């Protein structure tokens, strides 16, 4: 055109602005307006509308509005508009900024034909009156502009002006107004607009129903959203890609499997394929619902139809990875592809995540090492994922190695990367290494954040190294980072470990000025410190405050129990234990142990047994601490020392079912006989060889419950197995004979004891005495009592 002397017109400029804008070249599009102005051509309404639309789509709402208003008064002003501030969509792929001078000099004025004008005005608007647009498309653009800018009143004013001026409205007009109202929470106004649209004889199109479908879904009204989807066909329209994508996303997000499958079946009947963007969404729904076979079949069907993009594969792999389904994720990762299509680095990254979630660290590392061989090089995210994964799994040496390689490859680790390694070192107690990484990041110019300092301070606090903890607290302050609750809590913990009350109190009082006040960990640390120092009233003050706020946890209750119990305030300790139990804070082995220990100290042995049963019923396995309490219960419950020693020996040797035997004995000792017999059946029915200690427990359990016949049958079975009765066996048999009034049995045991066939034993003597008393033979009980005195007096005489 320039060579042939053909000057550009409004139509030329309008098309140039339009195509540059649609290509994402916003700066270049606006430079054509500069050229237009210098040529002396004032934009007509179509050109103006195009400019406003390009600015709107670039997010430059204020400039779009300003350009429109200037046009209305016959001006075109872009003089102070910073063209370099406008982002082109292709800036990300490296397009260089356009020089206005270069653009104008090389493209615009290669030939003459311009008229120099300093400030172009519309020659048709000489009376200074305000120009009004007349085209429906212009009003549609303006409504959309003000809607996206959040200026609802301006959008409504434009709509009203259309009505006032008699400008024809079309489907786009109503769709734009409906979306503007609905997306800003005015759904009822949007529905009113739909009614008005139909009253004006303007038929809603598929996009209209798509808009309502999304609006209803966003508002949680799924029935209304599905009704919109159905209505599209009812009114003779056809769902488009947007419709299907929207309805599938809405249903899949809510895991409505049946409804999703119905929609997909309808699409198949209409020979419409599921949009690629929707494939990961459907698979994620199936995975969330545990329908892995359906997810696999669905994916295979679509792989037969078309190759998936790398982005889609990443989303599918991630859906499996989030649920720890590494094998399924791996199948997608290594699945069939078109010839020449290599795996994208993001696919490797998300596969590393899948292995990491499954704690398959060797597989993740192997994948990382092999990716270069397949033509894909790790990026910064790859290294970060590996470092975070190894650090989270306490494989800190591997994480440190990856960190070194990352730097060698020219990547600069960010604070988040360093903090993961430092936190891992601190957690493992390797504080010199943690400090080394901290010094390295500072040397590289990476500013530490509160997580870094929190890890270091907490690490030194755990070891009771207050000086080092305070050193990093001061460094944190020097970097201008405000201490948060976590950091201050760690310092309180440090002071607590070394018994520094004043330092802890000062920090705790300071935390009260923070939003939310001291957290539960800080409060528990203070209670613990007061408990160690025996300061009851101070500890109770904090504890009562936590209870009042409803934030006291198991640690709070346990620490107060510890304090009261150590000071001999057993009634108060029991009150706290009861409240802890009623509050539902018995959630793990440690909390059960503390309450049981408190009951045991106070002699509430039956309550101990009930808690033990509750613990087992909730499938919380007793630990060493639990058995320590159980042995205390057995001793306090009067079980002979020899029987307790025998149980302890079996437990410590790790004999099969030894733990069950101890539990059975506890239930019997505290009178919970039904639980005892149920527990007893566990080892009696086991297909293992039992020694005499287990038969002793069974004889004791049956005898204590009054089932003497079963107890004696156990004794006979023991003999049939070739096991000789021991001291504990005779003690338990004496008890059974006494309850059943079987004096002959008692006399046999007493005779063996008297004539030294059984080594004299105080526990056995007492068992026989108690048995005679139980059988109402107090005379015989007195006789045995005298014999016991004589036997032990004789053994104590000097040789």
SSE arrangement:
Elements: H1 10-22, H2 26-39, H3 45-57, H4 61-72, H5 100-108, H6 136-148, H7 152-165, H8 171-183, H9 187-199, H10 206-218, H11 222-234, H12 241-253, H13 257-269, H14 279-288, H15 292-305, H16 310-322, H17 326-333, H18 345-357, H19 361-370, H20 380-392, H21 396-408, H22 415-427, H23 431-443, H24 450-462, H25 466-478, H26 485-497, H27 501-511, H28 520-532, H29 536-549, H30 554-566, H31 570-582, H32 589-601, H33 605-617, H34 624-636, H35 641-653, H36 658-669, H37 673-684, H38 692-704, H39 708-720, H40 727-740, H41 743-754, H42 762-774, H43 778-795
Helix pairs in contact: 1-2, 1-3, 3-4, 3-6, 6-7, 6-8, 7-8, 8-9, 8-10, 10-11, 10-12, 11-12, 12-13, 12-14, 14-15, 14-16, 16-17, 16-18, 17-18, 18-19, 18-20, 19-20, 20-21, 20-22, 21-22, 22-23, 22-24, 23-24, 24-25, 24-26, 25-26, 26-27, 26-28, 27-28, 28-29, 28-30, 29-30, 30-31, 30-32, 31-32, ...
InterPro entries: PPR_rpt, PROP1-like_PPR_dom, TPR-like_helical_dom_sf
Protein name: PROP1-like PPR domain-containing protein
Keywords: Repeat
Please tag this protein with its features:
single chain, 799 residues, mainly alpha
Q: Count the strands?
A: 0
List low-pLDDT spans: 85-96, 109-120
What sort of overall outline do the alpha carbons produce when their principal axes are compared? elongated
The proportion of strand residues reads: under 5%
Distance between the termini: 136 Å
* Proportion of helical residues: 55-70%
How large, in whole angstroms, is the Cα Rg? 42 Å
- Number of continuous helical runs: 43
Regarding quaternary structure, what we see is single chain
- Average pLDDT, all residues: 86
Question: Biggest β-sheet: count, sense, barrel?
Answer: none
Give the class from helix and strand content and strand pairing: mainly alpha
